[in-house]
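Let's study today's protein:

:::
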Amino acid sequence: MPTMKAVRMHGYGGPEVLKYEDAPRPEPAGNEVLVKVHAAGVNPVDWKIRAGYMRGFLDYPLPFILGWDFSGTVEELGPGAAASGFQAGDQVYARPDIGRNGAYAEYIAVQASEIQRKPKSLDHVHAAAIPLAALTAWQAIFDAGQLKAGQRILIHAAAGGVGTFAVQLARWKGAYVIGTASKANHEFVKELGADEVIDYQTTRFEDVVRDVDVVLDAMAGETRDRSWQVLKKGGILVSILGQPSQDDAGKHGVRGAGIFVQPNPAQLQELADLADAGKLRPIIDTVLPLAEAARAHEMNQTLHTRGKIVLRVV
């Protein structure tokens, strides 16, 4: 069986359970496409799975390969993928099925229906930073939140992986954008398109924000609890960290929704078009080689990275 280099988790625990090693190279079956991975994005869901926080919801046979953000080149088509429109050599990116081995590897087998051609204007490192976080932002504020031009949105953790995309997308839609971020990131978030930025370390956002149509909750806990009161009647809080309490929503005369990002090639195409038009740019905090995935997890777990961490595979 052909092999490849990959980072696999051999148990649940800290970053030390991640091992850079030889692993079986996947073979594309059915409607699958084999992609040579050039770069893989690192997201909080990766280390949450590794630490065991999502056991019961997502359980995997070990050893297992994490990572569900990638950009790369089509290497081979499965026997049923000929009609997909893809061919060897195509440059693609995706947020693939999270239930299968991921992209911390030289190769990944994915359903042809999950991939899309990457933005032409971006290299693989920057393209790999887009799928999971930008799709999360899109599905939260547009699909669930139904954000429209002229509305007001509060985006928590506006300098983070999802937040940086949400600010840009909300601005592109024509919304009035309010973000929370540390003082050091205020000018940065404004450059992304925020109209106002609140220093969460010195100011309670609920003291200065009123009548927003949508809250993007990327924090949960106390931050979510305090967010209900800033919504106008009939507004909506959309969480990317589980389902918010419908009782809490009802007490404030607002709505609550939770999303778990899904693969969506049509939305990836829209994101690629925005990137190529100069209206959406991925923010890269750090690029590390694949072998340093454990270090990437350590950094991502601080929750203080600006934008995304990306692993360079090729």
